[in-house]
Design goal:
mainly alpha; globular
């Protein structure tokens, strides 16, 4: 059952991002449903572990610190990469979509549904289940690659870049801590900061919408 859910969730996220990329569906209407369903399924078929190899407090502290460091690094990266027109265009597009809803709504949908669901599925179920069949290092690497492939379907350079760098960090945190709490803390902090305090390139787009 776990393998079936892993495959179904992987395909569902690819399909969801693809539909969003074609503009047939709004990201804020479709992806919370897709990712939320994946997260619920992950919890149903596999008990989730918060942090088996460290304390809860340490997992949260390290995860939050890693999330803040990732956010600061992302700001620098976006500033440099935005000199490339295709990347700048995709950044403006993503924040333009974020600006179509209120900041409160985007934060609730992201931090209460989408981010936890991704961590429960990719790091909790996918990486955790693979760790039983392979080594924990191999499981983290395979889950990371699967996460990247699922996000490539978005056809958005910022989303793919986030999946590559963020996915590597969150997989490493789950590997180190033996659970999803550290990666969840990191992912939530990074996403919240990216929405509430967007990098310079994205700020005009989001401020031009209703999120401010």
């Amino acid at each position: 059952m776990q393998i079936a859910v892993m495959v179904a969730g992987f395909i569902a996220e690819i399909a969801g991002w693809w539909l969003v990329s074609t503009r047939r569906f709004d990201v804020w209407r479709l992806m919370p449903v897709v990712l939320g369903s994946m997260g619920v399924a992950a919890v149903v078929v596999r008990p989730q572990v918060a942090a088996a190899d460290t304390s809860t407090a340490t997992a949260v502290a390290v995860g939050a610190g890693a999330g803040l460091a990732l956010y600061l690094g992302t700001r620098v990266f976006v500033w440099i990469a935005s000199r490339w027109a295709p990347f700048r265009r995709d950044v403006l597009d993503q924040y333009g979509q974020a600006g179509e809803v209120t900041l409160a709504r985007s934060l609730v949908l992201s931090l209460a549904i989408m981010v936890p669901a991704e961590e429960l599925f990719w790091r909790g179920l996918f990486q955790g289940r693979l760790g039983q069949a392979t080594t924990t290092a191999a499981a983290a690497a395979i889950a990371w690659l699967g996460y990247i492939v699922a996000n490539v379907a978005s056809r958005s350079l910022p989303i793919v870049a986030g999946a590559i760098v963020g996915g590597a960090l969150w997989g490493a945190l789950a590997w180190w801590s033996g659970g999803v709490l550290a990666s969840l803390a990191s992912h939530i902090l990074w996403t919240g900061c990216m929405l509430a305090f967007p990098p310079g390139t994205g700020r005009p787009a989001i401020e031009g919408g209703s999120a401010r």
